[in-house]
Amino acid sequence: MENANNKIEKWDLIIKPQSSWLSVDLVSIWKYRDLLMLLVKRDFVSVYKQTLLGPFWFIIQPVITTVIFTVIFGNLASISTDGIPPTLFYISGITLWAYFADCLTKTSNTFIANAAVFGKVYFPRLIVPLSVLISNLWKLGIQLVLFIAIWVYYLNISKAVSPNWTLLWLFPFLIIIMAGLGLGFGILISSLTTKYRDLTFLVGFGVQLLMYASPIVYPISALSPKMKFWLMLNPISSIIETFKYVFLGSGYFSGGALIYSFIFMLIILSTSVLIFNRVEKTFMDSV
Amino acid sequence: MGNTVIKVEGLGKQYRLGQVGSATFGADLKKFARRLQGKKEQPLDLGEENDRTKKGNSDIVWALKDINFSVTQGDVLGIIGRNGAGKSTLLKILSRTTSPTFGTYKVKGRIASLLEVGTGFHPDLTGRENVFLNGAILGMTKKEIALKFDEIVAFSGVERYIDTPVKRYSSGMYVRLAFAVAAHLEPEILIVDEVLAVGDAEFQKKCMGKMKAVSGEGRTVLFVSHQLGTIKSLCTKGLLLHNGTIQYSGSANEAVNYYLRSFTSMGSAPTNVTFTPKDNKRAQILDVKIYDVNQEQKLNFDVFEKIFIEIYYVLNEDISGLGVGLNIDRGGEILACSSDTDENPERLALRKKGVYKTIVQLPHPLKSGTYTISSIGIGITNVGGIDSHDNIFNFFVEENSFDPTFKSYSANRPGIMFASLKWETSFLEEV
């Protein structure tokens, strides 16, 4: 699909069986921006319909997870938290991690979950996973409010918490890299699941494993140099560590590691978008 | 002539039969290895014609093959064909929900497809929210929807429930609202599947009116339907598909007629059945025909055509009390059982040895559908049959020459047979 000048006539749309790999139609995504926002609104409204607590559920989840982590990893296993109060340490990791995990799992079934709609009408398919990223931002926002409340509390009572205020501007970039990674992995899986359904079983389990391979419940400083090297290959590690470095003053900050994560994100995202774009044209024949 | 807005060249679509999509990882690896060695991919051209009644040798079929046509602005193109002819596949490619395997497809202008109504409706959202969401999915901007919102709601007739979640709607209200959104799309090219067959009669008429209005505005419409009458009344051009190829392309009327003729020429569907005479029978049916008022033998009839059955039979001796009769079935249910002595008891008198001819006109008009002359027989009334044959003809009655909406012989109306009832309505007084 490309806008092209035919020799004699001008066509708005030309469809051929094999268009080039690089024919991602960003223009039409922009044209459908209203649909993007309406899908976000749909997710937002439909989640709270017929619930008593509404958005409050978004708070309960990280609170309980933090309590469990504090008991198991803090008290029972006595894993170091770099001198940071355990509650604050765990919730800072959980908040950012949850955004990544949600983006990944909810975009990973894009094709299968939307087969009914995709089979009936054409619109740029990328709109759907993009709307998931934006919908999840709202949830992230609510959880960040919780995090900030706890953070401010400990900022006042604990001397161990000493934010690196000058690096606060990095925060939006951390979110962007997280979103990009979540989207990249998510749509890659969704493209592959149209053919190999096995991957759907792997997603939930894989995300859980990946959490333990990221410095969420332990600080990277607690690891041996060799382990640290392997862990930093995980693009999420530097994001979590930078977040902790900026807000808590603990953790490991390296510009190089952050750039690595960023480039990793760009590569996985562009590869996934290309694959996604290719799959979207014929997936109706195999779903 | 206007300019060409759609051009389809050499379009083809192949499907692999069997376990589509569940290809093994191993098979993919082999394919990849072949490609690495610089060998060509398995030739796709091995595919066979898409005739589902025959068992093929190849596991690749052409759902569509070598489709070429173009549509000029303002055309209303009706796409017809039997089930499995490739209508849906063509529609899917034209509406971009799947890609062709071969060929190109070019479009000028904004295109919107309506393969079903209410795509993307979310049960928890209110009518209002769904109008916006569905409109956006169909390609409208929020601003466009907002401008037409009142019009959409008025058309749907569900004003009162517009802020209620659609899961509380009756199915009729749901469909009305969904169609209302679709009806207010304003693309230059509209692709419509048989979505008109929804809702009650009143709403159907509204939909038909809207379709006519849309085509009257000079917009291009591609329309797929089984209702040949609708195609004739709505479309200017017709495209007849058969087993994945274009069998006829021309005016809508011609395409429909061609389609009907092709039905008749189908193999195992004779319009004349003869039986070899045997001497040992007292009486025997020799020959049966089915034809219209001009004695043209055929199996496809319009609702308004009169249908005749002609029966030749022979009596090998003088017989009294003899009658000849037949049963008409629709969908396995006997609609009528009639004999030539029913209204004329004097025929029960002795009939001489010899050959006889009987012509019977079937009930008229028959509602559209597939009918069977399930039995023809001769026998002695109240005693027993002498000779009979089952399932002689299958014939079709279709609504071609008129728009069946609001007519009691419309297939959509309940009731087994058409009955012409006399109504008297008079104005009494002003109030």
User: Outline of chain A, from the CA principal axes?
Assistant: globular
**Percentage of residues assigned to helices of chain B:** 10-25%
Order of helix and strand elements from N to C terminus of chain B: EHEEHEEHHHEHEHEEHEEEEEEEEE
* Oligomerization status of the protein chains: heterodimer
Q: pLDDT under 50 segments of chain A (min length 5)?
A: 1-7
| Overall residue-averaged pLDDT value of chain B | 81
**Individual helix count of chain B:** 8
Shape of chain B: globular
CATH level-four homologous superfamily name of the largest domain in chain B: P-loop containing nucleotide triphosphate hydrolases
CATH architecture of the largest domain in chain B: 3-Layer(aba) Sandwich
Largest interface: A-B, 39 and 48 residues
Helix fraction bin of chain A: 55-70%
> How confident overall, as mean pLDDT of chain A?
87
Please state roughly what percent of the residues of chain A sit in beta strands, choosing from under 5%, 5-15%, 15-25%, 25-35%, 35-45% or over 45%. Answer: under 5%
User: Which spans of chain B of ≥5 residues are poorly predicted at pLDDT below 50?
Assistant: 40-46
Main sheet attributes: strand count, strand direction, barrel closure of chain A: 2 strands, antiparallel
**Spatial strand arrangement across the major sheet of chain B:** 5-6-7-3-8-9
Radius of gyration of chain B: 28 Å
